[in-house]
Amino acid sequence: MEAAETIQSIRSLIKAARDSGKNIGLVPTMGALHVGHISLIEAARKKCDYVVVSIFVNPTQFVPGEDFEKYPRPLEDDLDICQKAGVDAVFAPAQGEMYPVENVTWVNVEKLTESLCGQFRPGHFQGVTTVCSKLFNIVAPDIAFFGQKDAQQAIVIRRMAADLNMSLSIVVCPTIRESNGLAVSSRNMYLSEEQKKDAANIYKSLQKCHRMIDTGVKDASEIIDEMRNILLKVPSIEIEYISIVDADTLQSIDHITGKVLIAVAVRIGRARLIDNILLDSTK
Ligand code: PAF
Fold first, then answer.
1. Which candidate among 50, 99, 141, 222 keeps its CA 20 to 30 Å from the CA of 2?
2. Is position 37 annotated as part of the catalytic site?
3. pTM over 0.90
4. pLDDT digits (tens, 9 = 90+) for 242-282
5. Which domains does the chain have, with CATH numbers?
């Protein structure tokens, strides 16, 4: 496995791979790698000859007051995980390599970024789409891999790639969960064992929603009330939002119809946790 810190060095590794006829897969990450990231790497290895993992804690997607400084940066462990997972190259640039001067050019996806997390993290998605555009320009992957846990991010990036005619496809891989249902996330390391048990109720509320929709409940507010009741029983959970939205437009819906995304964001202690399920109510 090669490790590159500069844009020039990752570009020359990728050029060599391309010249030998390989297609390129990119798994963009902020490091603190876990089984969720490993599943993205495995998906990339199945579809691509040359797999690049980027590790960059992107300052522009953190809103003031968020955990940018405290965000875990276990680079040696991450490199080890990548090596064992069969990654071909890691791109781990310093901040000054990605943003050498004040950034004045932004990629902004409208509408899809207004609801859900966008309401609570103003500017977050602009940071994500800008850094992903930069990474796509640097690595020029054929396919980039994202996790369904960050459902809104995946939808926003797919739309950005389509609207800007980017020459890559976006693959979204299923959420990986702990045995108690908690979605795996780098931010789970902020949780105590007790808080992890409490956090399992997020998925319980989503499963309840799934069952209600399966049994024909159509009223979104009835479902949200049931989910809220499950979460309110856990004193450590502070609900940020529980939303049922159209899976394409991300606009709230009152009546369950077609493909719907049910998304939850909560705070437990110093962790902000998100989770979701995607359902096709016609099936
Ligand atoms: O999902 C993440 O880890 C980040 O938002 C991403 C896509 C790597 C951009 O910094």
1. 99
2. yes
3. yes
4. 999 999 999 999 999 999 999 999 999 999 999 999 999 88
5. 2-173 (3.40.50.620), 186-277 (3.30.1300.10)
